[in-house]
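Good morning N.,

You mentioned wanting to compare the apo and holo forms, so I went ahead and generated the holo version with shikimate-3-phosphate. This is what I fed in:
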Amino acid sequence: MARAESTRRVFLIGFMGAGKTTVGRALARRLGWSFRDLDEVVEEREGKSVAAIFTEDGEAGFRRVESAALQELLHENAAAGNLVVALGGGAFVQASNRSALQRVGILTVLLEAPLEVLRRRCATDGKTRPLSVDETRFAQLFTERRAAYELAHVRVDTTDKPVERVAAEIEHMLAAAAKLEVKE
Ligand code: S3P
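and this is what came out, ligand included:
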């Protein structure tokens, strides 16, 4: 019972181009919740773009600040109301980040699409992604990350679906979950 009335947080995960940021914003708007994008938190914290962090500090440097930003987000928002978060594509792949989410009982939703769809979205959405430049590496990461992504609580296919439809599906799922919690 208490659960449905307490703070609720949903984290969207998935590969580059899955639509985590656009769906996250739409979902937050529908629910009247706040929205945060982990890459934006990293950029605000470091005072430079994700691409600049990759160039200056390498991927390892980016992963360090990404984990630190995630920790900050998890603690700073613990009492700040209901929240939708879009993680960067590699954040959930790091086991320590997954454990941090698990420890605070975050619901994770995986947004899925086939490789070609993700590739097309990354080429057209205007975001600079250091790890989508090399097509072979992009495909390799897609395969390598699958097992980690499958650890999400829920999966939603985004192929050929408008952003609002994906957001509506997640909203309905959350409403159903809240009803179950109230009955418990
Ligand atoms: C990354 C995905 C990016 C961003 C960074 C690394 C990844 O976010 O965090 O470029 O490792 O998949 P999006 O998933 O929002 O593109």
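Residues 16, 20-21, 39, 50, 88-90, 127, 129-131 surround shikimate-3-phosphate (CB under 6 Å).

Happy to go through it together on a call whenever suits you.

Best,
F.
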